[in-house]
Amino acid sequence: MSDESGSALRDTPGSTEQDDSGATRRIRAVRSRLSPVRLIAYLVLVLLVISGLAFVTGWRPSIPNPFEERTIDRSSPAVLRSLEDLSEYHAASAHFEVVVDLEEDSRWIPDALRGERTLFVGVGTVDSVIDFGKLGDGAVTVSADRRSVTIQLPAPTISEPRLDLAKSYVVARQRGVLNRVGGLFGGQSNDSELYQTASAKMADAANADGQVLALAKTNTTAMLRGLLGALGFTDVKVTYAEDPK
User: How many angstroms separate the CA atoms of 139 and 51, rounded?
Assistant: First the structure.
């Protein structure tokens, strides 16, 4: 009995060596399956499959651009300060484009040292409006049979020009040496004078041309005739303050 147990004990080391050799073979098999060449082949295969699916389905992966710039708006919300009743009818609108050439210089200093010249293209609109809030008590006269009506309106006027900042632009800006040095220390050019000059020129052109004012009368008369005609009036006469009596 002791011989058998002894033989069993003697057999144990042999079995351990067999177990170790089997584990070693399995580790070698796993390492061979995970060799760099096989990994590269698997990655290439996966990429080919993804490319095929993208070609068939039309899917394109979106890769973010690390250098892409973005704009972050941290402005506060608009605050309502006041409300105003409007009684003006905007009957016509004129579109203008004006070139503003402004130069600021010093009398005794050369322009190369101190001075600034800006060439600006302003684009905007000017409306002609009829102020219905100025209608007096006798501005509307209705006949006894309620078939005829006469309306006397104030003369059309030019509204404040609206400058389109998205389409307006500075063509060129020339500065003297001192102006440029001042810009380096925080001094900046103020373009408000350019905007005001462009708006004033648009308003002057609208008043001098007169077409937008004449169109305002035509459109307002057509609007009132259509409105009052729907109410049953067959004869609608519209006059304006500057028209001859």
Answer: 78
Domain extent, residue 10, equals 2-57
Please give the distance of CA 244 from its chain centroid, rounded to a whole number.
48
CA triple 11-14-18, angle to 5 deg: 135
Q: Please tell me whether residues 53 and 93 are part of one structural domain.
A: no
Residue-level pLDDT at 244: 45
**pTM given for the model:** 0.59
* DSSP-based helix, strand, coil % in the chain, nearest 5: 40, 25, 35
Place of tokens 């004078």: 193
pLDDT of residue 112: 53
DSSP label at residue 134: G
Q: Are 128 and 156 in contact (CB under 8 A)?
A: yes
Instruction: Give which of 124, 126, 123 is closest to 91, Cα–Cα.
Output: 126
The sheet with strand 148-153 has its strands ordered as 140-142, 148-153, 235-240
For residue 62, is it within any domain? no
What is the pLDDT, as a whole number, of residue 1?
44
Q: What angle do CA 174, 176, 179 make, to 5 degrees?
A: 100
The tens digit of pLDDT for each residue in 141-190 reads 999 888 999 999 999 999 999 999 999 998 887 765 555 555 544 445 57
Tokens, residue 113: 């040292």
Q: For residue 34, what are the contacts with CB-CB under 8 A and spacing of at least 6? A: none
Q: Do 13 and 110 have their domain in common? A: no
